[in-house]
Amino acid sequence: xxxxxxxxxxxxxxxxxxxxxxxxxxxxxxxxxxxxxxxxxxxxxxxxxxxxxxxxxxxxxxxxxxxxxxxxxxxxxxxxxxxxxxxxxxxxxxxxxxxxxxxxxxxxxxxxxxxxxxxxxxxxxxxxxxxxxxxxxxxxxxxxxxxxxxxxxxxxxxxxxxxxxxxxxxxxxxxxxxxxxxxxxxxxxxxxxxxxxxxxxxxxxxxxxxxxxxxxxxxxxxxxxxxxxxxxxxxxxxxxxxx
Length: 243
Fold this sequence. Notes:
6-stranded parallel beta sheet; 4-stranded antiparallel beta sheet; 8 helices; 10 strands; 34% helix; 20% strand; elongated
C-alpha cells in the first residue's frame, strides 16, 4: 500500500527532511541569490513546533551559507555538504586545493562560478554560454575528479566532495537519533536520490519536478512544496488536537 499524507500526519513520531535548492528555494542563475519560499519555511517551523516532529534541511551547500540564506528558523536543523557538515566547519586544505583547481577552469568559461565548501566544492555553469556548457562541465570533471571522493552532476552544477557522506547517510543518522514512525523526504535533484533510497515502504519519498526518480510521490514544481508542507502541518496539528 502506498504511504499517504494522512498517514504521515498521524505518525506517532515524524521526521521531515527537505532539500534546499529546487525544493525550498527556486533554481536561479546566481546561487547566492537563491532565497527560500517564505511560506515553505514558515510551514517547516510550524511542523517543528509540534510534538514528536523533527525537521531538517539537508543541502549540498556549505552549512554556514545555508544558514545565511534560510535566516532565523527555530527548531529546524541544518545539515550541509550533502550530509557531511553538522557544524559550521572551516574549509579543509583538500577542499581549498579542489576549489583552486576548479577556479582555473571557471576562468576559461565566462559565467562559471565555483562555490567553496568545507567538504568539497561546486562548479556552477548556469550562466555559461549554451554552446560551451558541455565543454565547461567536461573540463571541470576532468580537473576536479582526481581531488574528489565523490562527483555528482546536477542541474548545471557539478558537485565535488572530499567526503564520502551523502544525503542518504545523513538521513540514516537522523533516523537513528529520532526513531521516527514515518519519514518524509522532499528533493528535486540527483543527490536527493541517495535520501530516497534509504526510505522504507511506510515513508514518503517526494520528488519535485518531472525527472526520473525512485520517489513514489511527485510534486510538479518547486511552487508546490509550500502548499504540501502547509497541508502536512495543518493535518498533523489537527490530529494532535484530536480534531
